[in-house]
Amino acid sequence: QVQLVESGGRLVQPGGSLTLSCAASDSSFGTLNMSWYRQAPGHQREWIGTTTPTGAYTNYADSVKGRFTISRDNAKNIAYLQMSSLKSEDTAVYYCEQSTSWGQGNQVTVTS
């Protein structure tokens, strides 16, 4: 089973930008869809978006569409979540997911 390790979470001001990374442990990464989720305190885990194995197609939740971008580098076995125009309501723990494997979660806090 692939292992996923996330990085990049931190505190950021409203309107700011941040990119999270998700590194996979083996090359099966490039053959599978990759998804990102988030979970805010007191809320259920929310799907953010999914990209296909080549990255040719990506779907997003309405709450992040136009602000967040999912990309991937299959040569490096890494996926990215680029976030811009961040709002306080984007504060959450962010997770990458692939084929039932989950990253450990990264805290993103949007506050002034």
Describe this structure in words.
With 112 residues, the chain is mostly beta strands. 0% of the residues lie in helices and 48% in strands. The protein has strands at 4-7, 11-12, 18-24, 34-39, 46-51, 58-60, 68-73, 78-83, 92-98, 101-102, 106-110. Strands 2, 4, 5, 6, 9, 10 and 11 form a seven-stranded mixed sheet that branches. A hairpin with a 4-residue loop joins β7 and β8. The protein is globular, with a radius of gyration of 13 Å. The protein starts with a strand and ends with a strand. 27% of the residues are buried.
Provide key terms for this protein.
112 residues; 7-stranded mixed sheet; 4-stranded antiparallel sheet; globular
Helices and strands in order, then pairings?
Blueprint: E1 4-7, E2 11-12, E3 18-24, E4 34-39, E5 46-51, E6 58-60, E7 68-73, E8 78-83, E9 92-98, E10 101-102, E11 106-110
SSE string, helices as H and strands as E = EEEEEEEEEEE
| pLDDT averaged over residues | 96
The biggest sheet, with number of strands, parallel, antiparallel or mixed sense and barrel status, is: 7 strands, mixed
Taken from the alpha-carbon principal axes, the silhouette is: globular
Q: Strand-residue fraction?
A: over 45%
Helix % is under 10%
Give the oligomeric state of the chains in this entry, treating copies of one chain as homo and distinct chains as hetero. single chain
Class computed from helices, strands and strand pairing:
mainly beta
Intertermini distance? 40 Å
**Count of DSSP strands:** 11
Low-confidence stretches: none
What is the rounded Rg? 13 Å
Task: Figure out the total of helices.
Answer: 0
